[in-house]
Amino acid sequence: MVNDTRVIPARLVGTKSTGGQVEILLVEKVSPEISHEGRGDRGWHEDWRVLARGLGRQPAGARLRFAGDVEAEILRRGPRGEVELRFSGQGQSGLPAHIEEFGAVPLPPYIEAARKERGSAVRSADDKARYQTVYARQPGAVAAPTAGLHFTEELLAGLQAADHEIARITLHVGPGTFRPVATPDPTQHRLDAERYQVSEAAAESLRRAQSEGRPIVAVGTTVVRTLETLVRLGPLAAGSGSTSLLLLPGCEFRVVTDLLTNFHLPRSSLLMLVAAFAGRERTLDAYREAIERGYRFYSYGDAMFIRPGSLPK
Fold first, then answer.
1. Which part of the chain is CATH 3.40.1780.10?
2. Which residues contact 73 (CB under 8 A, 6 or more apart)?
3. Residue pLDDT, tens place only, 1-37
4. Quick one: 122-310 is in which CATH superfamily?
5. pLDDT tens per residue, range 36-91
6. Which residue from 123, 112, 101, 100 is spatially nearest to 6, judged by alpha carbons?
7. I want to staple 22 with a disulfide (CB 3.0 to 4.6 A). Which of 54, 69, 124, 293 is the partner?
8. Start and end residues for every CATH 2.40.10.240 domain found in the chain
9. What pLDDT score was predicted for residue 124?
10. For the chain, what is the mean pLDDT?
């Protein structure tokens, strides 16, 4: 099972009325449709929830300007630093077409930091292609489901030729995936909700695998969270919604039998999910060996395959 979300070029740089620069990270579209109301035949507006750097104390009603004659009005500011903006511009296509031309892919903070340390450019023209799985289809993520970066078209074709069934779900990864667990008690950590969608074809594939006793392999932690959310709502069925499910050691996994995942940052909810799935001590042993052998960590790093039932005790 793979996650076919597609990373959008969600980072925009604009200017405030004072002339200062502001950097915007799109998080989630608030208005369901592009609105042309009051804009005439050639105008549009749509509302987005964003994270902003450099916004300062700009009040509600203040306007920002972006490349391509796009403007944004501050509608409201949230308690956790999020801001709701109303973007507007000319034409019929709306913000998605604009960001494809003017936006940049939002890379994880540790990639940006490493590039700065090496003295290289923080962002590369190759990022739009490299920070994307080959099966990415549904636009909406601001971070890639990185376990899927290991797959090529040839590898997928080989798996299918060997009679492995490949099904797809969608979970749009948000910026909260980078937020470390800062609470002394991990159970008090709160994940940001992320939108998911599971088609009837994917649900039927899951039910068939379970009835036939076949493994259900999750490519990445995003797939795990989606499937384990779905089964907690009732029998496995198609559905859509949002999930903030936090899986910690002691949690029961009711769908996924095997996991392919990268090596994650310390104090991250991703690492805690892996420890819940494989067992804390086994996970620590795997990470010790990875460090000793010089494995690469994080988004562009190496991966491991976990089958809990086959692990030595």
1. 122-310
2. 61, 62, 63, 64, 85, 86, 88
3. 999 999 999 999 999 989 999 999 999 888 766 666 5
4. QueA-like (3.40.1780.10)
5. 655 455 689 999 999 999 998 899 999 999 998 999 999 999 877 789 999 999 87
6. 100
7. 54
8. 8-102
9. 65
10. 90
The position carrying tokens 């492995």 is 164
Token couple for 38? 């009051």
Rounded CA gap, 255 and 194, in Å?
A: 19
Q: Which two tokens stand for residue 309?
A: 């039932």
Residues 6+ apart with CB under 8 A from 126: none
Looking at residue 219, its amino acid is: V
- pTM (2 decimals)? 0.89
Task: Retrieve residue 106's tokens.
Answer: 């939002």
Domain 8-102 has CATH 3.40.50.920: no
User: Which amino acid makes up residue 299?
Assistant: S
DSSP per position, the chain? -EE-EEE---EEEEEETTS-EEEEEEEEE-SSS-B-TTT-TTEEEEEEEEEEES-TTPPTT-EEEETTTEEEEEEEE-TTSEEEEEEEEESSS-HHHHHHHH-B----HHHHHHHHHHTS-SS-TTHHHHSS-TT--EEEESS--GGGGG--HHHHHHHHHTT----EEEE---GGGG----SSSGGG--PPPEEEEE-HHHHHHHHHHHHTT---EEESHHHHHHHHHHHHTSSS--EEEEE-----TTPPPSS--EEEEE---TT-HHHHHHHHHH-HHHHHHHHHHHHHTT---STTS-EEEE-GGGS--
Q: Which amino acid is at 312?
A: P
